[in-house]
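quick one before i forget lol
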Amino acid sequence: LTKKAKEVGAKIMNKTIMHQLLTNKDGAVIGAIGINVANEVPELVIFQTKAVIITTGNALRLYPGVNPAFPFNVANCPADTGGGQAMALRAGAKLVNLDLPYVHSGPKYFARAGKATWIGVLTDFNGKPVGPFVTKPDKELGDVTADIWQNVFEEKMEDGSGPVYMNCSETAPDDMQYMMDAFLSEGDSSLVDYMEQYDIDLRKEMVEFGTFEYNFTARGLDIGIDGSASIPGLYAAGNATGNVRGDITSAAVFGQICGESAGAYAKTIEGESVESNPGIAEEIELCNSLLGREEGATWKEANSMLQRIMSEYVGMKVRSESIMKAGLKYIRDLRKYTLAQMKVDNAHELLRGLEVLDLIDVGEAIALMSENRKESRGRCHRRTDYTFTNPLLGNKFQTIHKDKDGQFVLEFRDKIRK
C-alpha cells in the first residue's frame, strides 16, 4: 500500500497523529493539526487542505478490557481510540449509532477475539448444549447460540448455571484441521500458538467462552453514499463510520469512493489559508499545558477512571436515566480534572494523553445518545425505565452533532437517507 501510494506522489507522514480538524467560518474543513511524536520532543504539524478523509478505525479503551491492569491487552488495535470520531464531533460533524455498542465473543480472558470459525458446540460444564440449535459440531454453521442469545455467557454466570464452554470433543479430524487453518487465515495466529505452546488438545479440553470489551466498530461518522460527512470537505471510510458495516470490504469500497469524491470536491473550491486559524493556537495551548506541568496525574489514571465511569454508569447490563445522567456528570468532571491536572513528560505520553481526551469526548457523546434513546434495544442497550423496544424507532438511526454555539443536537433519522 505504501509503495503504491508513493508511486502516485503521496507523501506519507509517519508517527504523526492527527488530533484536530481546522474549519473556516462556514464550517467547512480546510485543514488539520497533527503531532509528530517520532522524537522525545513533539512537533506540531499543520496541514492545509481542501478535503480530509478520516479512516481512523473504531474506539477501544473506553471500557475495561479482559485484564484491566493492562490497558493495551485488548481484542482489537489499542491505538484506535476514537480520534477520528472525536475530532469530527468537535468540528461539528454528525456521528451515528454510538448508543448501540458492538461486542464480540471468544475464549474468555484471551485478548484476541474470534469465534466465527470454531467448529464445536457451546455446552455447560457437563457437556450439555446450552442452546437448542446445535447438538453436534457443524462445519457449515458452527453454533449460532451466541448470535441469537447474545448475552448467554453473562446470564449463565449470573444464574449459576455457567460457565459456557466451546466443546470440540466430537469435531471430526478434518474439520479440526480446517478450524486451525481458518484461525490462521483470520489473524488468530496467537490462539493457535497458545494451544501449541501449552499442548491444549481441543478433542479433550473444553474452552470457556465469554465476551470482550465493548467497542465501537462501525459506530462513528454519518456519511452519504459518496462518503461525505455532514460538513463540507470531510469524508470517512472504514470502522470510523457509523452507518456502514462490512469491515475490510466496506473500508476498501468506501476508501475508493471517498478518494474519488474528495478529489472531485477539491476541484470545485479555492484553497484557504489556515495560518491564522484559531484552532492552531488552541492546540498549542493544550499541548503546552500538558507538557509544562511539573507534577500531576498520568494519562493512565485518567483512562482507567473513564473506563470505570463508562462501565458503571453507561454500561451494558443496566441503563436508566438517573444512572446515565450521573455518569454524564462524572465524565464532564473527569474532562475538567484531566485538563487541569494531567501531566505528560514527552511526545509518547502526549500522544497517550490526547487519546484519553478523545475518548472522554466520545464517552460524553455515548452517554448523551444512550440517555436520549428511551427504549431497550438489542444486547447492549437495556434500560430499566424503558424495558420495551419502540417499534417506531426500528427503522431509525440516532445522530449527534454540535451546533455553531457548541451545543449538542440529538436527532433520529431514517436508516435510508431521503
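fyi The first helix runs from residue 2 to 7.
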